[in-house]
C-alpha cells in the first residue's frame, strides 16, 4: 500500500522547504490553494500542513496562516573527553564559550542493566547500575539529553555513587572516577542518527519525527569500562566538534 495522499503532499512541501523554495519566515500557500494545486480536498491539504507542523518545519499562527520555521543558529558541542580533567563541567565550559548559560536537570535511580548496556559495561545482564537521566540546557532552553549508566559494583558505598549529589556533584566522569581510584585512560563514541522518540521530542521541544544524533559513549580505565551513556542531540541546532590529542612521541 502506498503512502497516504496527505503524506505525499507533505513530502513535496518538505522538499520545497529544505531546498529553499519556501524560505524561513515565508507563509505557505493557503489550504485552499494547496488543495487546488494537488487536486485534493481542503481536509487532505490541512492534514499535510499539520504533518509539517508536527515535524517542526512550519508553525501555525491563528488567524494568520502557516509559516516556515526559522532555523535556530547551529552551535557547537565539543567532544573531547580529556577536557574533563580540568575540573568542573565540560558542558558548562562549552556553553560559556558561546556566551550561553549552561545547566541541567538530572534524576538517578538504581536499575538492572539491560542487555545492550550490560554489553557496553562488560558485565552481566541484570547487574545493578546507577542510571541517571539528564536534560541539558543553554540559557534555559533544552540542548541535549543524556542517559548514563555506572556499575554499582564500582561506585556503591562511595562519595560518587550519585553523579549529581554529594561532594563531587556536577563534576565530569573522569574527575569523579578519579576520586575513587578509577583512572580513565580512554573513551569510545559511536555516532548514529534516527528520528526522536515522542519522549525525546517533548523534552527537547522538537516536532515529532525530527532527526537527532545519538552518541553512544563509554569511558574505560586500563582494565574495564566504568560508565556508558546515550546522548541525544538535535541535528538542526548543534554540530559536533571532535578534539583529538596527538602524541608527538
TrEMBL record:
SUPFAM superfamilies: Chorismate lyase-like, Winged helix' DNA-binding domain
PROSITE patterns associated with the record: HTH_GNTR
GO BP, one annotated term: negative regulation of DNA-templated transcription
Protein origin, superkingdom: Bacteria
Location of the HTH gntR-type domain: 3-71
Gene3D superfamilies per UniProt: Chorismate lyase-like (3.40.1410.10), Winged helix-like DNA-binding domain superfamily/Winged helix DNA-binding domain (1.10.10.10)
Keyword vocabulary terms for this entry: DNA-binding, Transcription, Transcription regulation
One of the record's GO molecular function terms: DNA binding
Alphabetical list of PANTHER family matching this protein: GNTR-FAMILY TRANSCRIPTIONAL REGULATOR, MANNOSYL-D-GLYCERATE TRANSPORT/METABOLISM SYSTEM REPRESSOR MNGR-RELATED
Stated name of the protein: GntR family transcriptional regulator
